[in-house]
Each structure stands twice: as structure tokens, then as C-alpha cells.
Amino acid sequence: MAYGIYLRLDITVHDNWRAVIHAAAKKLAPRARRDRAQREARHRSYRQMLEHHREAHAIVSNRRL
After folding, report:
1. Measuring CA to CA, which residue among 58, 48, 45, 49 is closest to residue 19?
2. pLDDT, position 1
3. CB within 8 A of 63, min separation 6: which ones?
4. Which domain holds residue 48?
5. 5 near 28, Cβ under 8 Å?
6. Domain count, the chain
7. Measured on CA atoms in the order 31, 35, 41, 42, is the torsion positive or negative?
8. What residues have CB less than 8 Å from 52, skipping those under 6 apart?
9. What is the residue-level pLDDT of the chain in tens, covering all 65 positions?
């Protein structure tokens, strides 16, 4: 499920980690971003997005000639 969300972030594999977090945060409703009770779940989601981004970046960098 998290990979599908990562694909919809509208970022490129060359974007930095801050762009990933920013795009992921924009996908959340404003109320969800402020909810302290959901902080751990939000951070877990951001970590998953960053992991998918690292994997995509590694794939692209291995394919370069």
C-alpha cells in the first residue's frame, strides 16, 4: 500500500529527501497533519516513503551507463 502512495507523490527519483517528505505531507489532510495522536503513524509513513525513494534511487543509479 505504501508503495502505491509513493508512486502518487508526483516527485522524481532525483528529488531529495525533503521533497519526498513535503510531497507526502501535502497528501495528508490538514487535520491529519496536526493530530498529535497520529504522530507515530505519520512518521512511520514518512519513513516508508523515504525507503521507497531510496530503493528507486538505487535502481536508477545502478542502471546508468
Report:
1. 49
2. 63
3. none
4. 2-63
5. no
6. 1
7. positive
8. 2, 3, 6
9. 689 999 999 999 999 999 999 999 999 999 989 999 999 999 999 999 999 999 999 999 888 74
What are the grid coordinates assigned to 5, written together? 502512495
DSSP code string of 12-55: -TTS-HHHHHHHHHHHS-HHHHH-GGGHHHHHHHHHHHHHHHHH
Give the closest residue to 24 by CA, choosing from 38, 1, 54, 45: 45
41 exposed, middle or buried (CB, 10 Å; 0-12, 13-18, 19+)? Answer: exposed
Contact (CB, 8 A) for 49 and 5: yes
C-alpha cell at 21: 517528505
According to DSSP, residue 61 is labeled H
